[in-house]
Design brief:
It is built from two helices and two strands; from the N terminus they run E-H-E-H. By secondary structure, it is α+β, with helices and mostly antiparallel strands.
């Protein structure tokens, strides 16, 4: 099963993502110690730009993961 890490400490969001991903054979997990990581500044003009910034920023703390 593939695993994708989600940059949130919100258990409701993780549960919702996990429910949607399960039917596609994907496991969802939070980034361990996410709350202690430096905050990524969300100054993009769109939700998509900010999502990309967060994905790229937090991915530095979990090399080899999606």
């Amino acid at each position: 099963m593939r695993r994708i890490l989600i940059a949130t400490s919100n258990p409701g969001k993780l549960r919702d993502f996990a429910g949607a991903a399960l039917r596609h054979g994907v496991e969802i997990a939070g980034i361990a110690e996410f709350a202690s990581l430096p905050t990524v500044v969300e100054d993009g003009l769109t939700f998509e730009e900010n999502a990309c910034k967060k994905a790229e920023g937090y991915s530095r703390y979990v090399p080899g993961e999606i």
